[in-house]
UniProtKB/TrEMBL annotation, chains A, B:
<protein>
    <submittedName>
        <fullName>Polyprenyl synthetase family protein</fullName>
    </submittedName>
</protein>
<keyword id="KW-0479">Metal-binding</keyword>
<dbReference type="InterPro" id="IPR000092">
    <property type="entry name" value="Polyprenyl_synt"/>
</dbReference>
<dbReference type="GO" id="GO:0046872">
    <property type="term" value="F:metal ion binding"/>
</dbReference>
<comment type="similarity">
    <text>Belongs to the FPP/GGPP synthase family.</text>
</comment>
<dbReference type="GO" id="GO:0004659">
    <property type="term" value="F:prenyltransferase activity"/>
</dbReference>
<dbReference type="InterPro" id="IPR033749">
    <property type="entry name" value="Polyprenyl_synt_CS"/>
</dbReference>
<dbReference type="InterPro" id="IPR008949">
    <property type="entry name" value="Isoprenoid_synthase_dom_sf"/>
</dbReference>
<dbReference type="GO" id="GO:0008299">
    <property type="term" value="P:isoprenoid biosynthetic process"/>
</dbReference>
<keyword id="KW-0460">Magnesium</keyword>
<dbReference type="Pfam" id="PF00348">
    <property type="entry name" value="polyprenyl_synt"/>
</dbReference>
<keyword id="KW-0808">Transferase</keyword>
């Protein structure tokens, strides 16, 4: 058994050996560009952890991990084009450096490479691994489309449950599938695979609620982002959508007005509405609810509880919980 | 054994049963849009023919055929975005109808679906099938990038051999891989697979030379396209690149001038240079050279020659040869 930190180090060592061909340079420089921006490599580590929950680490988990990390970066590359984002992690995005066509194509070639890695896993579970991956990959695309569809609607027109569904698809199913793929490599049975998948999905949703909460109410110095960044761009978040459900008619009017204007104190005024309708308290509870669901899922997995410790640690770390 | 026409009918019946989910509508309508434009479905029929060259038709060849047809349409969808093409087959392209973001994402979800079909083939040759497909798919992307890179260069700066290589990657390797995938499903050995692959690649290049030739010198009524369409948009073709090699300094100057201007009689003037430097005769010979290479490859395949008849017929049909 290895700690989260040890697994990240092991994976990075493996992942950094993978190189794209040198030619055509425009194509592969664009693909390398997004990978060189770094990242926490959470998803591949979930593959390794899913494997180690049930068995010794198998080289196939590194292949599956490489596949999900390439896929995740492919989605970032194409999402940045769709969002017309000039920057990612403070650096120019691939399409601004290499042009949109090269960036579309670089994403495509990365997605094909995903399957080069999945194709290396043992024939005994190859079909199952590709199938679990494909379902998640398709759902990520569906989630992205739903997100774009929601963006064109008024916040009031988006149902909270639809939003949870969208966020689940866009951000959580790949975490869940990463764990499940690892567990398949580790030899887990169907029931254990499903509990682990559910754990990953619920942790993902709790994390996203926390992310929205911290953007609004977090300490900007600690969080490393501008406070209220989501509010400034009228981003649909758990908080904004739920606020429309929770607030009274006067607050609702105020919120609508704030969304169509940009006063200097927009962030503070929106935060005042959020606080008065107690959507901050609601978010804390909702995050806790999904966290609890996740830990219940983990409890259901039929392995010695000592083996679950790294996953508990990771969830507590991601969800900023004190033990 | 089935004829080309019978195999097309069988494939279409199978392919048309495949439906995308209904939601999210923007995503899947955009994917269906390109498929509904039709097409000759040559590539999947090559899968079926590659299979039948060695054995009875296997349902796996329909899965592999569906995969290559989806992949081909995915490339058209993304290429149209890169080329900013408003029309395909006289109809508005997917990105003009559904927006660029939905079209990028629809291509992505189609590419993932490719692997859903490849994942259905027998475990005994799944790894090999995915591996052959992936190599071709990566090469198609590389060819597309090389094509875009060449577009920004002067025609004189593009070497003929590099252009043949690019065209091979962009248009021929998928034909070749379709045949090879079918042959794997039919149980062919490595040697026969390679000969069949080479046959497909050489037919593809001969076809592309013919396509360039007909665009310039073909009968517009028979060809169904405007004569000299490539010339009008200064498209790099076999003819233009070779003309720069074959023509004398005066002709070269004239060609350069014509490329930077658009006189009313541009097409005729370029055709005059093509004729005087005999690039038309060269193209006929070059097409014949690749065709001969292809038929030599077919001869090398160790099966009864009667089994090769449908492939010969298809090649003669595609290359407009009288038997």
């Amino acid at each position: 058994m290895h700690s989260f930190k040890e697994l990240i180090a092991q994976f990075n060592q493996y992942f950094d050996q993978q190189k794209f061909p040198e030619q055509p340079a425009t194509l592969y420089n664009s693909a390398s560009h997004i990978l060189n921006m770094g990242g926490k490599r959470i998803r591949p580590v979930l593959c390794l952890m899913g494997n180690e929950l049930f068995n010794e680490l198998n080289p196939d988990a590194f292949e599956a991990g490489t596949a999900v990390e390439l896929f995740h970066n492919f989605t970032l590359l194409h999402d940045d084009i769709m969002d017309k984002a000039p920057l990612r992690r403070g650096k120019p995005t691939a399409h601004t450096v290499y042009g949109e066509s090269a960036a579309i194509l670089a994403g495509d070639v990365m997605l094909i490479n995903v399957y080069e890695h999945l194709n290396k896993v043992n024939a005994g579970y190859k079909q199952k691994i590709i199938s679990v991956f494909n379902r998640a990959a398709i759902e990520v695309c569906e989630g992205q489309q739903m997100d774009m569809d929601f963006e064109s609607l008024d916040p009031e027109a988006v149902q909270y449950d639809d939003y949870v569904n969208m966020i689940g698809l866009k951000t959580s199913v790949l975490l869940a599938a990463s764990l499940q793929m690892g567990s398949i490599i580790g030899g887990a049975g169907d029931g254990n695979q499903q509990h682990l998948y559910a754990f990953g999905k619920n942790v993902g949703i709790a994390f996203q609620i926390q992310d929205d909460y911290l953007d609004a109410f977090g300490d900007p110095e600690k969080f490393g982002k501008q406070q209220g960044g989501d509010i400034l761009v009228n981003k649909k978040t758990f908080l904004l959508l739920k606020a429309f459900e929770l607030c009274n008619p006067a607050e609702k009017e105020q919120l609508k007005k704030l969304l169509t204007s940009s006063p200097d104190d927009k962030v503070n005024k929106v935060l005042d509405v959020f606080s008065s309708c107690k959507v901050d308290k609601w978010a804390e509870k909702e995050k806790e609810r999904f966290t609890q669901l996740a830990f219940n899922n983990l409890d259901e997995i039929a392995v010695l509880s000592a083996r679950k410790e790294p996953l508990k640690e990771l969830a507590n770390f991601l969800l900023e919980r004190q033990q």
